[in-house]
What we know:
By secondary structure, the protein is an alpha/beta fold. It folds into two domains: 6-243, Aspartate Aminotransferase, domain 2, CATH 3.40.640; 247-379, Aspartate Aminotransferase, domain 1 (Alpha-Beta Complex), CATH 3.90.1150.10. It is 38% helix and 15% strand. The strands form two sheets. A seven-stranded mixed sheet has the order 1-7-6-5-4-2-3, with helices on both faces. A five-stranded mixed sheet has the order 8-9-12-11-10, with helices on one face. The longest helix is centred in the middle third of the chain and has 21 residues, at 246-266. It is globular. The N and C termini lie far apart (67 Å). The mean pLDDT is 96. The structure holds pyridoxal-5'-phosphate. Residues 74-76, 100, 102-103, 147, 172, 174-175, 194, 196-197, 206, 208 line the site of pyridoxal-5'-phosphate (PLP).
Amino acid sequence: MKKLGLNTICTHVGEIKDEQFKGAVSPMYLSSSYEFIDVDVKRYPRYFNTPNQEYLSKKIAVLEHTEDAMIFGSGMAAISTMFLAFLQKGDHLVVQNTLYGGTVNFIKEEFPKYGIEYTFTNGYKVEDFKAAIQANTKLIHIETPSNPLLTITDIKAIAELGKSKGIVTSIDNTFASPVNQNPIDLGIDMVMHSATKYFGGHSDICAGAVASSKEHIERIWNVGKNLGGSLSDMTVWMLERSMKTLGLRVKAQTKNALKLAKWLDKHPKISKVYYPGLKSHPEYQLAKSQMKGFGAMLSFELVEELDSQQFQQELKLIKSSMSLAGVESTILSPHLTSHSLLTQEERHAVGISNQLLRFSVGIEDIKDLKNDIKQALKVTKQASFA
Ligand SMILES: *Cc1c(COP(=O)(O)O)cnc(C)c1O
């Protein structure tokens, strides 16, 4: 068969045919117990191989251009299982300094218990990764675009660095989604996702995924069956339903984000916009070369005088919300959420000011998003500096 287009893959790949009743959508198989005599596969939910898990994995693998994939109960279940499959006592991980907070916590809180060493890079340039490599480095992990400043890491250069040293490479591709970025094509070995974000897309599912070669997935499976981070089949089914519109949603969100970033960039009450699709972004050219679209996440800073908390409260359509990537636009203050455990000085050092707001752009009509921001800016008062 000819290579399928994105929306056809999202809609059809990994469907389970309803042979019994000829229904249009995949049946949901909730059995936690399956026949074991004379069967090809011994199925069990925690083995990640119930019919719904197995078939949805196919869709994810095709979207990420890999041989195989696994679905997990959360993004953190995916990342922790992947890390523990490739790192054991005495091994060393090189990991990007700007990273999802939960991943940072996992590394700092759990690695010492397992005797696994790690180094956070000093920056996101390939030289920073090179400098952090040790003789016992077994894995390099990156995140691009990163949260919340949307820095861009050179995926191909990292993949080449890993290959030249015999080190496996992995990426958190949550922010871009396979709609905007396919790291496997640039040489990365393993791609993970918080499926809670764009895969789910409606802020009502918690899930995760890893896509890679059959060999690597088998290694992850061997650890995964022990850690037990599988997803319930009811949620797997909901995830399949959500993913049918992944291409449509993320493309619409990406289009909105680019328009909004350009508009905010010109607004006198916004002092800075962070978005890889702006020509002023330091890695604009790199983003253009490795991404299919610039994604739907952006950050911006209000001018010093304005109260950023009041601004968020004045928004009527755009919700302030911890998570991201739903069809609805949401906004948050990194200094009060993901980076609240850092001191003011530490935040300053990584470029996160109290005026910084992270925006997850939804599918709403762009004029309504602009109008909401306009009316909120109009009524937002000067910060009192009390
Ligand atoms: C949310 C998120 C995770 C963690 O995923 P959960 O589903 O919350 O466990 C990992 N990486 C990134 C970039 C995320 O945004």
